[in-house]
Automatic annotation (TrEMBL), chains A, B:
This is Acetyl-CoA synthetase-like protein. One of its GO terms (biological process) is fatty acid metabolic process. InterPro entries: AMP-bd_C, AMP-bd_C_sf, AMP-binding_CS, AMP-dep_synth/lig_dom, ANL_N_sf. Residues 475-557 form the AMP-binding enzyme C-terminal domain. The lineage of its organism: Eukaryota, Fungi, Dikarya, Basidiomycota, Agaricomycotina. GO terms for molecular function: ligase activity. PROSITE patterns: AMP_BINDING (PS00455). Pfam families: AMP-binding, AMP-binding_C. Belongs to the ATP-dependent AMP-binding enzyme family. SUPFAM superfamilies: Acetyl-CoA synthetase-like. Residues 48-424 form the AMP-dependent synthetase/ligase domain.
Length: 570, 570
């Protein structure tokens, strides 16, 4: 990978010679043994211990830039001062509309250093959705990447455009330079450490398939502890290289902007999910870690560039459970899947499918079934519970755990330091979500006798066929094992005799598509035959439809609601 | 290593079938997003995720025992109930006088589960010293290993003797069984989670070379964050096997009782520091981690059993800096030294000599000089400062950092979540130690231009020779590189011309001792010649004395004060 020698940061990005103080002004009134937790501490440590280590490589952009931890920290400090000079007060929201790039990485640290709240906005939203979030969040300043200016509504907020050049003349660079001038070299000591570790850190809006997006407010304490857990659970070290495939705007990149920095690792920012770029970095840049949803993981292993990687890569998978097929494909290439589960409301990952030694002796299929479960809570999260769903009118009744029988379905609920603080400016939604003193995930699961939690389906994903409950997830797991299937999703479709029956939508693998061209009905028969050996009769798909693509949300989740609408019209 | 099948735990150590709840009664009044930190959470997680994994192997005792995480957690729960039934109230102190063994490992979790404070007492102290600590701490219950009963004074406190058998009939086992009966299978849910994360966790007495020992009170929050840092910084995983060489009574084993459990690793408890046992486990039990002071490390690499280990072992070194000789000897055997620094007042390790990539290209000697520095603060600790020492009467004056010039000597001071809460029942000592809002370590150091903190000496360890300041540590580092030197320590001795001059006390290596028998003066000449090539003249030892052993404190630190007394009489 290219090194920092290829790029000279702007004058105001270079720390003054001999600047060594990495401590902010301490809040008053704390005893010697208490320091409010704050994920900013990780970047401060990195800039002190590894000032000359490569922190960010933004190598694939039109204007590649490379920052060491020393330079990056200076830029973050400049950003904090620039925000304060622009009138940002503690607790104010600062919105960021940007793809994976240095500016949004900066903002995860600089906004917090100004004691404000970062509000990263999904670049795949429509202009009216962005307008809603900007208004609802009350963002007083917006950092927008030049490519997404068209998403901006007319606004009273200060707008800082980033041309993503890193060069003088870029409005974002001018903004940082204004911070450096305002700082008058007071350095970190001129900024105040937030005294309340439960103050807001980030405000991330859920993409919400129904209704308006909701603003998930997280805290400094939670971000700190979640980042530590992510660094620990995925074994990141100073030797690690993290590739940004997951968008940083998605639940603050699952706290990885802080976790990577806590580990003193290097991060590579990719503006787009581009398979050639991804495979270039896998093969040439020493990548050791990345995060992505299964649909993206499927594209990665199916890319023409895919081959065995020179260094083992840890692939963190969340969004939905990986299939045996995907796990096998990843492992063949030297990519080690780690299955985690969480929601925006839990800072991203909250649980992990902890591996047991005994699994090593299992067949890939059996092992994958174990790994596809959601498992147990992370190092710094409280144990999840799976509880009987209370009637709507009994929301204050105590929660009752389901038995560990692998059969009784309940709802996953969680609390503790890695649960959100609230839905911003939505007391009703917060109260509903926190019924019984736990956050209600809406995800339905069983607890197996070995204690592993396994998601069955959201209630609407259960197919009730002839009085039997079939899990669309379980059906998808089995259909994905067919050698010609690239990606598959299953929904319930009304059936005159059985009430409901499964319908499968399949994308064929590139090399299998020609074989079945014009013979999709025959492929359907082949897939049903495959299913019969693996699933009870009531769970076998009655209908199979081959498609070129599946409708997905802006964060890559398959939109079953769209498929259901389509099927309802058939 | 032997497995659990060789030992059947007592009836009351076996968890009830189907017991699955691992959550204590939640404290009232906390929002969904805040859970008070408590290191007990690690054992609860381990018992849930890895109930059948080997947690503790106490294999070398007269009565070997082996506990899985499931069984161990049940024993800890029994202990908590037994303590409560015995009248222990939240905040009470429970003393433990025991060598490394399951009982003291239990106590690190069970005492906290009863919301009490563990007070581990050094087994190498004299009976009067133990009596002082028991009285000062106000311990209401004492768990004492059968081998150390003689240390107990007449006491009003309840005494529970542990015969370290793990078998029915052992008074300690009966105590645990009483807890199980009292529990009436209410399980974890019958115990209360401590609401105040800043409540006391442990009370460890410093061995204090001068004056009475002082009681260092730590907190639950601090113990949690220190344990996470130790697990992270030493890369412990479920696959790790930790060998107890460091006594658990020493600063709560540097928080490793919790760190090992946080990592789901296996721990092997050794009652004594026995080289044959240590090397047996290195070679046969898959040991991956241990902690020890340099003097113990020297014994390990010099043992006749020493050879290349089959699995890389991480050796955490603290107490004083490792010499190049020791680092080389460890590395040759496949043991990877990690140099950390801290004090009882900082939960043990607080800093680490973080490795830089550039060091790999250095000679062993040069690399060792880098590694021997104390470095930077841990993941979860605040940056240390090295400050000009204020005059005694100006203790409230703001602290002023020394320049990063590698020459200006100041005092290491620290604060934050991994600094102690107070000296128990000693407000004066606490106030003095916390002057200026930082804990004062008493260790003198410089800050190098690269930011690494390097201890010079405690002020009395500096040798002032002809107006020049010579560091006894630096002299020791160089003398240790002589091929015949096993261990060396240097003190100042009065000199008629120069004021002071260095005097070296040397233990020869076993294979070199015969060569110099009766020729110690010649050895002294050889060592001085060696020193002249490496040290300025004023730092070369004027006197060299070969000895068979060095006076050490109960925790293995060399007692220079004893050597000084001896020399004063010469």
């Amino acid at each position: 990978m290219a090194t920092t020698s290829k790029f000279h940061p702007t004058e105001s990005s270079v720390p003054p010679a001999g600047a060594v103080n990495v401590q902010l002004k301490e809040p008053k009134g704390f005893p010697v043994h208490v320091q409010p937790l704050n994920p900013l501490s990780f970047l401060l440590r990195a800039s002190q211990i590894y000032p000359n280590k490569l922190a960010i490589a933004h190598s694939d952009a039109k204007n590649p830039v490379f920052y060491t931890y020393g330079v990056w920290a200076q830029r973050v400090q400049n950003l904090a001062y620039a925000l304060i000079e622009a009138g940002i007060q503690p607790g104010d929201r600062v919105a960021v509309i940007a793809p994976n790039s240095p500016a949004i990485a900066d903002a995860h640290h600089g906004v917090i250093a100004a004691r404000a709240i970062i509000c990263p906005i999904n670049t795949r939203l429509t202009a009216p959705e962005v307008a809603y979030i900007l208004e609802h969040s009350g963002a007083r300043l917006i950092i927008v990447d030049h490519e997404y200016k068209h998403l901006l509504p007319p606004t009273q907020a200060r707008v800082v455009v980033c041309d993503d050049t890193g060069r003088a003349g870029d409005p974002y660079e001018e903004f940082l330079a204004s911070g450096r001038r305002f700082s008058r070299e007071r350095g970190w000591g001129g900024l105040e450490w937030e005294a309340d570790e439960n103050a807001g850190a980030a405000l991330c809006y859920t993409s919400g398939t129904t209704g308006r997006p909701k603003g998930v407010l997280t805290t400094l304490r939670g971000s700190y502890l979640a980042a530590v857990a992510n660094a620990y659970e995925t074994k990141m070290t100073p030797d690690s290289v993290y590739l940004w495939i997951l968008p940083m705007f998605h639940a603050c990149g699952w706290t990885y902007p802080w976790a990577i920095t806590a580990a003193f690792a290097t991060q590579i920012t990719l503006r787009t999910v581009n398979m050639s770029q991804i495979w270039y970095h896998f093969l040439k840049s020493g990548v050791s870690h990345y995060c992505a949803a299964p649909t993206v993981q499927i594209s990665i292993v199916s890319a023409p560039e895919a081959r065995k990687v020179p260094r083992p890569i840890t692939a963190v998978i969340a969004g939905s459970a990986p299939t045996a097929q995907l796990i096998g494909d990843l492992e063949t290439k030297g990519i080690l899947p780690v299955h985690v589960y969480g929601l925006t409301e839990t800072y991203g990952p909250f649980m992990k499918a902890y591996t047991q030694a005994a699994w090593a002796a299992m067949s890939l299929e059996e092992r994958s079934r174990q790994m596809a479960r959601q498992g147990f809570s992370f190092l710094t999260s409280e144990p999840v519970r799976v509880v009987h769903q209370a009637a709507e009118d009994a929301s204050d009744a105590p929660l009752v755990d389901v038995p560990q029988d692998g059969r009784t379905v309940g709802e996953i609920v969680m609390r503790g330091n890695i649960a959100m603080k609230e839905y911003f400016r939505d007391a009703d939604a917060t109260r509903r979500a926190f019924a019984g003193g736990y956050f209600h995930s809406g995800d339905l699961a069983v607890v197996h006798p070995d204690g592993y939690v396994a998601i069955q389906d959201r209630s609407k994903d259960i197919i009730i066929s002839g009085g039997e409950n079939a899990s669309s997830l379980a059906i998808e797991q089995e259909l994905a094992a067919h050698p010609d299937v690239l990606e598959v999703t299953v929904i319930a479709r009304a059936h005159p005799k059985w009430g409901e029956r499964a319908m499968a939508f399949v994308i064929l693998k590139a090399d299998a598509a020609p074989k079945w061209k014009g013979r999709h009905a025959e492929f359907g028969d082949a897939l049903r035959k495959h299913a019969k050996g693996r699933l009870p009769g009531f769970a076998c798909p009655e209908w199979v439809q081959v498609v070129d693509e599946l409708p997905k949300t802006s964060t890559g989740k398959i939109q079953k609601v769209e498929l259901r609408k389509m099927v309802a019209k058939l």
